[in-house]
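Much of what follows relies on a compact textual record of a protein's fold. With that in mind, consider the following protein and its fold in token form.
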Amino acid sequence: MDGVLLVHKPAGMTSHDVVNRIRKIFHTKKVGHCGTLDPEATGVLVLCIGKATKALQFLMSETKEYQATLVLGQATDTYDASGQVVAQKPFQGVSHVNAVLQSFVGSQEQLPPMYSAIKVNGKKLYEYARNHEKVEVQPRSIVIHHIELLDQHDQFITFRVQCSKGTYIRSLCVDIGKKLGYPAHMQKLIRLASGHFRLENCFSLEDIEQGHYHMLSLEEAFQHFEHYVVEDAQIVYHGKKIKSDIDHQVVVCNQEGQVLAVYGPDGTGYLKSIRGLF
């Protein structure tokens, strides 16, 4: 079984838990995911199975879309509802919520949560946090493309955000709270999209176990990428370069439309093979 499977990850499972479950269902160890989701988050988890695992690095979409709910008046050490409360402030109302949300649109530096899997000196941040060890955390460059207020009721704010890969929505919730004058944490998170892969096209683990799913072929998974068609597929099979002034990665296909490889510029007027997908 080879292909790309869009899973609707449930709350309470790590992304690796989902990978293990799919490995058991399909009786294969060759399963990998294209971008992790926090255990309590739900939504789009893109999995590559079998030969499609060769495509993992190319399907880790640069743009993500989420729906999040934050709570004003309470901060936690993990920045979400699973953590210990570290600060509180009675909620006394809030205004200009939409203006504050819009102030986050654009390029910026974001400080990731201490409870995250980012590595510093070969050790994950959450390992430092659990051991109460101090470590300097560097901010990361992110982009908020679009943010929209969906609902605001008392201390609860729900919004939709489209952002760059690597953005921590937990940190965004905390930063929004700060601008509104309150400690805050993220209560709920749904990943609505990872690149072109959307939640409405995902399948629950229960559906998959019962055989109710559609496995995307590499041709379907790469349909939104730029394609380069070769007349002689042997060029690709042998990893030969292709003369071209294209200055970015392309998906190389044969004349029947079958995806063969991903090629990229070598800087000398040729495209070189980055990864064969056959």
The radius of gyration is 21 Å. Residues 226-276 form a domain with the Archaeosine Trna-guanine Transglycosylase; Chain: A, domain 4 fold (CATH 2.30.130.10).
